[in-house]
Amino acid sequence: MSSTKNKLRAAVLQDSNWHSEHGCGECPISEYCLPLGLSCADSESLGRLMQVSRPLECGQPLIHAGDPLRALYAVRAGCFKTTAVDLDGNERVVDFHLPSELIGLDAIFTGVHPSDVTAVTMGKLCIFPYRALLNLAGQTPGLLDSLLKLFSKNLLAQLAHTVDNTADQRLAGFLLRLSLRLPRRGEINDRFLLPMSRTDIASHLRVATGTLSRMIASLQDRDLVRVEDRLVEIIDVEGLQASAGPLAEIIL
After folding, report:
1. Which position among 47, 79, 104, 124 has the lowest Cβ density within 10 Å, counted as fewest Cβ atoms?
2. pLDDT of 178-217, one tens digit each?
3. pTM of the model
4. Strand arrangement of the beta sheet that strand 91-97 belongs to
5. What is the rounded CA–CA span in Å between residue 81 and residue 203?
6. Which residues lie closer than 8 Å to 214 by C-beta, 6 or more apart?
7. How far apart are CA 244 and CA 132, in angstroms?
């Protein structure tokens, strides 16, 4: 790891650079995050445990594969991506993480992070020291339930990505899933901005960037979506669901 990367990560991970902001109870996205279903008292306990990172710049690394698990991270603002190297030595985008979503769940079993995590946009994180969080969950059944629900949600997301579908189905499913993960959670958001580049989307969907552009053009020709730069408008929700095939049942 280069000294530059070390310095960039230190700006996020060192305790001296953490600072408190409003707690979980006052957070506008808390109902989708770890405080999900917690009482006011338990939410306050969680908030006292939590720290908020300084802003991360686009491209700034948060985690490197092989790092020990020290904390779980909830995205407070911005977008992050998890990347891994495939058998051919190519870096692939495994997933994207949006506000309220947890980063680090895949390190719980081994205690070591298996993948790199990097900021896609300017971002900010809520940091939950893992051991302290585990101790609190042992005393707070509601927090344990919330952790398990978020873990299950993460598994469903991975299932949607690993099911063997066509590239067109994966793109339709990706757009549907993304629309549900943005504000107005739980219902289709028919207009949204893509926080990530087409190159990263293509990597995530396991297609070439040129192929992705042709796939998007095909969706537009069929009047299912309209895409202008990074602005996406879903015109025909049912048609897009049909294009996603069996993925729609997992996502919706």
Report:
1. 124
2. 998 876 555 678 999 999 999 999 999 999 999 999 999 9
3. 0.86
4. 61-63, 116-119, 80-85, 91-97
5. 11
6. none
7. 41
